[in-house]
Protein: G-protein coupled receptors family 2 profile 2 domain-containing protein
Amino acid sequence: LQFENNCIYSTCRNITPFNGSYGVNSIIADFTIHGTTCSDYSLIIKFEHLLGNYSKPFCGHWDFSAPNTVNGAWSTYGSRVVDAATSHTICEYNHTTNFAILMSPRRTPPSHYFPLSLISAIGCGVSILFLVITILIHFVLWRYVRTDRTKTLMNLCVALIMSYVIFLAGITQTENKVICSAIAVGLHFMFLTDFALMLAEGILIVRMVVIVFPTSSIIHKLITACWIVPAGIVGITAGVTNFKGYGNQQLYILKLKTEHNVNTTQGMEAGMDRRYEM
Structure:
C-alpha cells in the first residue's frame, strides 16, 4: 500500500469550484494498492479541514477520464461521507486514486448562529400561535363552517404545528446521532404530510369547480392517504438507507448520495510531498 500526501495544485484553495459552490478544503491524498484489486477493499480516510468556514462536505476523487475536460475533473462517484464534523470528514471509497474533501465556502459565520436561531424560533412561535388561533376559531364555529375543505385545513394546521414543534425541539440536538436521526425522520414525515395536505386542498378545489354538485365525499379517503402515504415513503427511505442518510453532527436533514464532477482549469503541479510505504 502506498500513500502520498500531496498538494498537487499550485494553491489547493484556488481551484475553480463546481457550480461556483465547492472547493478543496483538505490535503489531496493519493493511494495505490499493489498486488491486488481495489474492489476487494473499502478504503476509509479521515480528512482534517484546512479552513473552518466551509460546509457541506463531499468526498471527492480526481477523475482523469471525466468527459468534456482536458485534465479531468473532481467526482464523488464511488465514495460516500461516513461522518462529518466541524474539524474533519471521514470518507469511504471503493477505489484508489487522488482523494480530497470538496466543501462549500458559504458557511454561516459563527457570530450569526444565535441571531438566526432566534429569528427562526420567533418565526416558528408566531406561526404556531396563529395556527392554534385558527384551530380554536374553527372549533367554536364548527357547526357553521364544517366542510370538506375546513376538515383538510384543520389537518393541515395540526401537521404544521407538529412540524414546527419537532423543528424547535430538535434544532440543537445534532450531537446525539440517534436523536438527530429521529428528528430527521420526524421532519421528513411531517413535511411530506404538509405537502400532501396542501395537495388535497387543491384537489378539493378542482373537484368543486369540475363537479358542481358532487354526490359523494372523498375527504376521508383523501385525508387518510395524506397521512399514510408519507409514512410509507419515509419507512421505505429509512429501510433502504438503514437510517444512514438521516442527519450528521451538523445537520438533521436527509442526505442524498449524488455524483458531482468538479471541473478545474489549473494544470496539475507537484507541491509538497510526504510519502509512506508499507
Summary: The CA atoms of residues 140 and 158 lie 16 Å apart. Residues 2-107+257-277 form a domain with the Chondroitinase Ac; Chain A, domain 3 fold (CATH 2.60.220.50). The chain has five helices and eleven strands. Helices lie at 113-140, 142-145, 148-170, 177-210, 219-241.
